[in-house]
Write a structure and sequence with these properties.
Largest sheet of chain A: 2 strands, antiparallel
Radius of gyration of chain A: 22 Å
CATH topology of the largest domain in chain B: Four Helix Bundle (Hemerythrin (Met), subunit A)
Helix content of chain B: over 70%
Strand content of chain B: under 5%
Order of helices and strands of chain A: HHHHEEHHHHEEHHHHHH
CATH superfamily of the largest domain in chain B: NADH-ubiquinone/plastoquinone oxidoreductase chain 6, subunit NuoJ
Number of helices of chain A: 14
Order of helices and strands of chain B: HHHHHHH
Oligomer: heterodimer
Largest interface: A-B, 28 and 19 residues
Radius of gyration of chain B: 20 Å
Number of strands of chain A: 4
Structural class of chain B: mainly alpha
């Protein structure tokens, strides 16, 4: 693309190429910085949103004292956690006890690296060259997200083991057992979307969902993959360890599960990772099933607003689910994962493969 | 130049972590170091311009199989696997074990040397017949897998099925429904 431009306008392009080679790392660095901070801010907003929505659902106000309508509550929460004493149980494994929360939060951040969240844009003419909204555009992005999020379970499992406490250990054991049972169905539901789009790149999958059927219905994979979508959402709840699948912490049975022995910042990193994972799961679901930044009638420049709205809707559903559905028993999830979710996703995959074969023939 | 630096970085990490795996007394650390080694290997695959293989390595080994390993290690709660100095009855202290172990190690070294020499002849680390394009694209890889390597592919899947059936048979006790 650049070579073609150089042929057409050699004089200006050379200067532009030099500028771009200098600008490129700056743009990438700025993108990483912005996404990193947005994720942190998003997790703070989610803490507040969760408590406010929970309050609404239970017919009370929720946090109301810090700032107007309790808006500054997350800042108060963070300050409280930072100034708490960091405790470590005597029999805990020194290295792994510290490594576990770090591993959780690092995998949560890294997973978002390959998620695109907007079309190519010049930010309303601010930049000369259009940039793609997203940190890294990898051609196997779907698999990278899947691989990195599947590493996130180690943080929980190690926290459970390193704490040297029976409740923590049970939490960690449950996390690994849970992960094995839903991840197959999750991966198989992803494979069906990959088959439809014929690509492993999230950006290409999103762009394959442009346009409408009959002028009204947007061409989202949600309408082609209703079963896959439901499986993805269920597996996503299990992946982020949220109610009704929050067995690793299950406070009525295991005190607080894997994070029982944690305090202060080390503790804070676990919910932080959980909220970032929620954002990632919602963003990937939007890219895979809801057409990403495409919406009939909305120009590409405003695509990121559409994307944000869809992600916010998903996050609301997450919180809604948590305060509506009671927790299952953890053997029920394992049975459900192996006996229902997995066969359903395999059938879905076979049907999708047949459909793709029929359409291509 | 940066490729050389990252290659040695990943290679050193892979070899170092793998050596530490067998040097650990706590099986928990062994599992974690093995994961680190897989991660370094996947970095090497990315350098060979095979991102799909790299990600598959992480998903299958680090993400799925090692979680199962970790589960078993935690469930057995085996803190240490070494035997006391004076314990002559430990299974690993029996004379036969040492003899066969040495033989196997020698065989492995010979095999490794032969493999490395063969690579030198072909001067192609991926293998003599495959050209790099077949590992780059997922579609090409699938095509190769289902045309040239069909037999190996199907044989492997039957092998895995047999292992699965065997595990189910072993796990079922007499009188279970």
């Amino acid at each position: 693309m650049h070579a073609a431009g150089a042929v057409a306008r050699p004089a200006r392009r050379d200067g532009g190429a030099l500028m771009e080679s200098l600008l490129r790392p700056v743009v990438i660095g700025a993108m990483i910085f912005i996404v990193f901070n947005l994720l942190i801010v998003a997790s703070a907003i989610l803490v507040l949103a969760e408590r406010k929505i929970m309050g609404f659902m239970q017919q009370r106000y929720g946090p109301y004292l810090v700032g107007p309508h309790g808006m500054l509550q997350p800042i108060a929460d963070i300050l409280k956690l930072v100034f708490k004493e960091e405790l470590r149980p005597k029999g805990a494994d020194k290295w792994l006890f510290t490594l576990a929360p770090v591993l959780s939060v690092v995998t949560a951040f890294v997973a978002f690296a390959t998620v695109p969240f907007g079309a190519e844009t010049t930010l309303f003419g601010l930049l000369d060259e259009p940039i793609k909204l997203g940190v890294a555009d990898v051609n196997v992005a779907v698999l990278v997200v899947f691989a990195v999020t599947s590493m996130g379970v180690y943080g929980i499992v190690l926290a459970g083991w390193a704490s040297n406490s029976k409740y923590s250990l049970f939490g960690g054991l449950r996390a690994s057992a849970q992960m094995i049972s839903y991840e197959l169905a999750y991966a198989t539901s992803l494979a069906a979307v990959i088959l439809l789009a014929g690509s492993l790149s999230l950006r290409e999958i999103v762009d394959a969902q442009q346009g409408t059927w009959l002028g009204v219905l947007p061409q989202w994979y949600l309408f082609l993959q209703p079963i896959g979508f439901i499986i993805y959402v269920i597996a996503g709840v299990a992946e982020t360890n949220r109610a009704p699948f929050d067995f690793p912490e299950a406070e009525q049975e295991l005190v607080a599960g894997y994070n029982t022995e944690y305090s202060s910042v080390r503790f804070a990193l676990f919910p932080q990772a959980e909220y970032i994972n929620m954002v990632t799961m919602s963003a990937v679901a939007t890219d895979l099933y809801l057409g990403g930044w495409h919406f009939p009638g909305v120009p590409a420049e405003f695509g990121w607003i559409v994307f944000l709205a869809k992600v916010a809707m998903f996050l609301f559903v997450y919180i809604w689910m948590r305060w509506t559905v009671p927790r299952y028993r953890y053997d029920q999830l394992m049975m459900f994962g192996w006996k229902y979710l997995f066969p359903a996703s395999v059938l879905n995959l076979i049907a999708t493969a047949a459909l793709v074969l029929y359409l291509n023939a | 130049m940066p490729e050389t630096v990252t290659f040695y970085l990943f290679a050193a990490l892979a070899v170092g972590a793998s050596l530490l795996v067998i040097g650990q007394r706590n099986p928990m650390y062994s599992v974690l170091l093995l994961i680190a080694s897989f991660g370094a290997l996947s970095g090497l695959y990315i350098q060979l311009e095979a991102p799909f293989v790299a990600v598959a390595q992480i998903i299958i080994y680090a993400g799925a199989i090692m979680v199962l390993f970790l589960f078993v290690v935690m469930l057995l709660n085996a803190p240490k696997e070494d035997a006391a100095e004076w314990d002559r009855t430990h299974p690993l202290r029996q004379p036969g074990v040492a003899r066969w172990g040495t033989l196997l190690a020698a065989l492995l070294i010979v095999q490794l040397a032969m493999a490395l020499m063969a690579v030198g002849e072909y001067n192609n680390p991926v293998g003599a017949q495959s050209d790099p394009a077949t590992v780059n694209s997922v579609a090409d890889m699938g095509r190769t897998l289902f045309t040239r390597h069909t037999f190996a592919f199907e044989a492997t899947s039957i092998l895995i099925l047999v292992a699965m059936v065997g595990a189910v048979v072993l796990a079922r006790r007499e009188g279970d429904q």
